[in-house]
Amino acid sequence: MSRKVGIIVSLVLALLMTGLIVSNGNKAYREVSKTVDVLVATRDIPADAKIKESDVKSVSIPESMAGNWLTDSSEVTDKVAAVGILKGNYINPYALRTGAEMAPGNVGIMIAVDLASSAGAEAGDLVDIHVVDRHEHEGSIAPIVVESVKVLRTVISDGTDKPLTPEDQGLVGGSTNQSIAAVSLEVPKDKAETVVYYAAHKGVYLVKSDKGAK
């Protein structure tokens, strides 16, 4: 009798274990098979172009891959591409900026800066571009080569756009310790060659313009 009871108990336990394994497997499958709609580009979008609703569409991807991709077309419509976005690429917030498209005849130039040479400029500021020839003798002036240039983006050392609040920058109640690494400037095309030359030789210094900002 006890042997039969033992067999029955073993069968019951086996069934319970099987049911538990199947249940967990189904739960894991449901988790993996969950999808979310994210936005992808429907065409190659050049940097500094304004994005239209038709430039993006929704596609479904596994929820586990969603990351920081944007999901609603209202989040991108009428924004400006901060970088070139290839057709089929997912859209993330760092690829966008607010503001107007560049004026005809202007180009966008990203240059490396530090806190001093950037003048603490932020997106929307107007700056004058001074250049320094490091091969000149001491006492040489640093002339302005372009006036009232719009700052399109300010990028910090982790590659993201510079936060605007002291809290986000870690200056108040935070631990973030990022520094300004680069700025994107809207420069007249005929001045681009000069700016690029001096930027390559670390001879570009920005000064905030007194002709307005943002």
Write the layout of secondary structure elements.
Layout: H1 2-33, E1 35-41, E2 56-62, E3 80-81, E4 96-97, E5 106-112, H2 115-118, E6 126-131, E7 144-156, E8 180-188, H3 189-200, E9 204-208
Antiparallel strand pairs: 1-2, 3-4, 5-8, 6-7, 6-9, 7-8
Q: Overview of this structure, please?
A:
The chain is α+β, with helices and mostly antiparallel strands and 214 residues long. It has two domains: 63 residues, Antifreeze-like/N-acetylneuraminic acid synthase C-terminal domain (Type Iii Antifreeze Protein Isoform Hplc 12, Alpha-Beta Complex), CATH 3.90.1210.10; 103 residues, no CATH class. The strands form three sheets. Strands 5-8-7-6-9 form a five-stranded antiparallel sheet. About 6% of the residues have low confidence.
Please report the number of helical segments. 3
Q: Indicate the radius of gyration in whole angstroms.
A: 27 Å
Order of helices and strands: HEEEEEHEEEHE
Low-confidence stretches: 164-176
Please give the domain count.
2
Number of strands: 9
Major beta-sheet overview: 5 strands, antiparallel
Strands in their spatial order, largest beta sheet: 5-8-7-6-9
N- to C-terminal separation?
89 Å
Secondary-structure-based class equals alpha+beta
Provide a quick synopsis of the model.
This protein is an alpha+beta fold.
Protein traits:
single chain; 214 residues; alpha+beta; Type Iii Antifreeze Protein Isoform Hplc 12; 5-stranded antiparallel sheet; two-stranded antiparallel ribbon
